[in-house]
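input
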Amino acid sequence: MRIGTIFDVAVRAMSTYKQAIDVTSNNISNAGNKDYSRQRAQFGTVTAENGRGAGVRLADVQRIKDDLLGVQIRNYNSKSSDANKRAEILSQIEAIVAEPSDVGLANYLTEFFNSWDKLSAQPNSTSLRLNVIQKAQSVSDRFEQMLTGLNDIQTSLQREAHNDVDAINSYLRDINDYNKKISESELRNIKANELKDQRDAVIDKLSKIVNVSVQNNPNGSVTVNVGGLFGADVSSVNEFDIKIINSQLRLVSKSDTNSIAYMNSGSLFAVSDMYSNTINKYKTNLESLESSFVNNINAVHMSGNTLINGASSSTGVPFFGERDLNGNVINAISGGQLRINPAILTNPSNIAASSLANNDGNGMNANSIARLMETRIPELSDKTFLDYYNMTMNGLGLDKVSADNAIQSSDAILLQLENQKTSTSGVSLDEEMTNVLQFQRCYDAASKMVKVADEMMQTILQMV
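output
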């Protein structure tokens, strides 16, 4: 080997191991960065024209990344975010229904029917009639508070969905920008490992909002799909929007609202499903209970008789609402609130406690209304009022338990996956310090080769 070749080999080795030390230093400096993927210096042999080895070169800076593990983490990111958002919304609903408690609808219904039971024993008592009105008003207010609260949550979820879509569109634009930068770097044979880490971090954030799929492309870019619809690649970005279609909150492509994303996880899916299905289910059950309650109370009350007013008692008086000119009951429910008959509010003697005309001492009709508490109602799946309401509350409780269990299971799996990611892509300071020492020794050895070659050159020059 010529002395000049020795110089070349040694200098090339010094440059190579200097770059390797730079790679290792970068790893060490990013040891606390959870989005960073460890990099590894890959060495290759330089071959001269005569086929002999001509030293070492830095063949590649490899990014240590398990793509399959990344897919699993994104999937469970979506599931965990979905479960957490559901649990959060269900907690808000639990706060509204306030069950079990003294201010819950179940307690107010019980007190309402008990007030009729007391009135049946003393049908002439004005104070007990006022008590019936007061308890009815408490039931009315509670229905209105619950239904208004559920409506308010839906309004809030609609705003949250629009915020989530804004975040989705922003993340997709970021992914498109990163794709362009990465592709340009790869075309110039410049490694863009840090840019890929930053892009993956954005994709992970996106996966917490909605389910995504990622396809790797040859130029280093990726194609990201959102709910089965195209999201972004190196050349273009698809923007999304939120639309209410058939009372369902849907994620659609802004350029084609007929293209609906199929969501199955993520916080936006939880928001959409809770808005479109779960909360509507609770509202429907409460509205069915409220309507049946009014109709059954009115049916019995209208068959009874008021106190004698003037010469006789009156019958056919509804407890909730009032009768129009055609005799139909109107305005019994308005805005989720029960409307007590104004004639009863102004004159409690119009409460029909008696089953007999002109018999103020009869309380059988009040007793019949009190017994409705234990009556199975056909339109309520053959359940009593309280049983039907408790069925709805039990469903709410089970939904909350299911969400809490989903949080625990998904978070446990996600923790395992993150630990695997750390062991694969994370930086081990012990390993990196070992590499630093190894590369430094190689660098020192190469520098000594330069010194040896210089001494050989000096010896030759002195011989001339």
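quick obs: The CA atoms of residues 180 and 300 lie 74 Å apart.
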